[in-house]
Amino acid sequence: MKLTTAGESHGKALVAIVEGLPAHLRIDEEQINTELALRQSGYGRGGRQKIERDKAEILTGVRNGETLGSPVTLCIYNKDFANWESCMGSGVCDEGVMAQKRLTKVRPGHADLTGVLKFDQIDARNVLERASARETAIRVAAGSLYKQYLAQLGVEIGGYVKEICGIVDENTYTFEQIRLSKTTQTGMLDSQTETRAIEKISALKTEGDTAGGVVEIRVKGLKSGFGSVMTYAEKLDAQLAQGLMSIQAVKGVSVGAGFAVGKKSGKDIHDEIFYDEKKGYYRTTNRAGGIEGGMSNGEEIILSVAMKPIPTLMKGLQTVDYTTKQQTVAAAERSDVCAVFALEIIAEAVVAQVLASAVKARLGGDTIEQVQARYNELP
Ligand SMILES: Cc1cc2nc3c(=O)[nH]c(=O)nc-3n(C[C@H](O)[C@H](O)[C@H](O)COP(=O)(O)O)c2cc1C
User: Fold this and answer.
1) How far is it, in rounded angstroms, from Cα 76 to Cα 14?
2) Alpha carbon of 309 to ligand 1 centroid (Å)
3) What's the CA-to-centroid distance between 132 and ligand 1, angstroms?
4) CATH code at 263?
5) Are 259 and 253 in contact, with CB atoms under 8 Å apart?
6) How many domains does the chain have?
7) What pLDDT sits at residue 93?
8) Whose alpha carbon is nearest atom 30 of ligand 1?
9) Burial 330-362 (b: 16+ CB within 10 A, else e)
10) 0.90 cut: is pTM over it?
11) What's the 38 CA to ligand 1 centre distance in angstroms?
């Protein structure tokens, strides 16, 4: 499976080419759009979400509701492009508008300064338009295709928001309970914790400040043996970490007990193994988070993903204007205060992409029926 995404934040559109899906997979377009709407929601999002009503168009690879086995091209048109065409179009742009939209007061924590220097740009917009997490809209659309593929094998991905700017939900939840996270304002499941998180986001907004947080992603129903111990590149935990770290603003990924493994002894970390005629091999704990030796072990996969606070602060941090080298206050473009709910949706999509690739690598299959038959034969 191969995924390529393209598109600038205020450009005409975002596109994705999804290669490797088998033929005969039924595609539910409504499901794609439901996930896109979830990515746009959550308490603390900025003004852009009021302009866009993301809808994915399928341009290639699907006929009569089913994949053909050819590359699937997805497209999301940016409504905001209408307001930016004169300075973001591919033809000759309006110099006056370009100067007005030029960003030189580079934002700490963003790609602006390093990108301007690396790509020898006079306008940080030529970098930030791609650095922007608007790109994740098309990854969520592609992720929905991967989820629909995995669903044919009985694999389901879920998640919830565990922490927003230091407000932590310490509860543990069943997979059934975490499905409810999509119905709350922040993606948090505990209403008292959520109320405190909302108060925190509101206070930060008033102060011109921003929030980050932590989400937990879970995968139910994946059989053992996906990924491989044999080469470092095939290790499933390594692939998941790579995918999740590629999401804008993600600064930490952990599997199972995560960093707690360094604090405890072996008897309190490793999951003991049992056997039952009916169940086969099983464990009564899952501190490994469903992955041992770079392979799924049949238990739920549990991942934690940490996002730093949004780098654009309305209050503005100290920076340097690279055209004058003078100390100044960073630019404040319209921006989110908190996007941790969105991160949860994006992280699900990325996990779906990695797992679908691992399934394809192990089972191949020209048609979804072949993939299902091969999957069902596995213990
Ligand atoms: C869902 C989501 C929404 C985001 N919204 C904003 C935003 O409105 N303003 C902003 O400055 N950064 C936002 N970011 C973060 C930046 O895109 C990111 O910090 C920046 O591209 C630099 O990349 P890095 O943080 O991975 O180093 C968002 C990230 C995500 C995942």
Assistant:
1) 5
2) 8
3) 6
4) 3.60.150.10
5) no
6) 1
7) 95
8) 133
9) bbebebbbbbbbbbbbbbbbbbbbbbbbbbbeb
10) yes
11) 17
